[in-house]
Design goal:
The chain is an alpha+beta fold and 92 residues long. The chain has helices at residues 47-66, 79-91; strands at residues 7-15, 24-32, 37-44. β2 and β3 (37-44) form a beta hairpin.
Length: 92
């Protein structure tokens, strides 16, 4: 099975208190392949918790996508979806 890179996770740390350097506050941010930040974001006092927040955000989005209704019956025929979209725009 071939794999592809979906996004990278950028991790940064900053001190909680000015000049301390021992108590860091970690930020984990998912970055798209084109360099744009994604909605997956986590902040915590520990690196593992910040990364866990990113993982939870990805899982939450996947579960939302799994619950979306199918808008047309056949993947080969997206025209009904387009017609409904145009009809919805004209109604508004």
């Amino acid at each position: 099975m071939e794999t592809s890179l979906l996004f990278t996770i950028e991790v940064s740390a900053r001190p909680k208190y000015s000049g301390d350097g021992n108590n860091e506050f970690y930020t984990a941010q998912a970055i798209a392949r084109n360099g744009d930040p994604l909605l997956y974001h986590g902040e915590s006092a520990t690196l593992s918790d910040a990364l866990q927040q990113v993982v939870d955000a990805v899982k939450k989005q996947q579960s939302r996508q799994a619950n979306l209704p199918v808008l047309y019956s056949s993947e080969k025929d997206p025209v009904p979806l387009f017609k409904r979209f145009c009809r919805a725009i004209s109604i508004r």
